[in-house]
Design goal:
The chain has 2 domains: 34 residues; 34 residues, no CATH class. Helices cover 56% and strands 0% of the residues. It contains 2 helices and no strands. The radius of gyration is 20 Å and the shape is elongated. The termini are far apart.
Length: 70
């Protein structure tokens, strides 16, 4: 019957969800955040480099006080 496909469907769905769920934990261990910035586009890469240059940690949110006056 139609319900015989449910275990296979469940296994496939778990197998497809596992990499996305584990990425959050891996990023927390490696980067210190649960997310990782997308560096596919040039604008995003430039923002990443700017944040690294200003604060030293691209994932730390800082304001204008981090920019030197000189």
């Amino acid at each position: 019957m139609w319900y015989e496909i449910l275990p296979s469907f469940g296994i496939i769905m778990v197998a497809m969800t596992l990499p996305h769920a584990s990425a959050y934990l891996i990023n927390k261990g490696v980067v210190g955040n649960y997310y990782r910035r997308s560096l596919l586009h040039k604008e995003n890469r430039l923002h990443y480099l700017r944040d690294t240059r200003i604060s030293g940690d691209p994932y730390k949110v800082v304001g204008l006080e981090a920019i030197p006056d000189a």
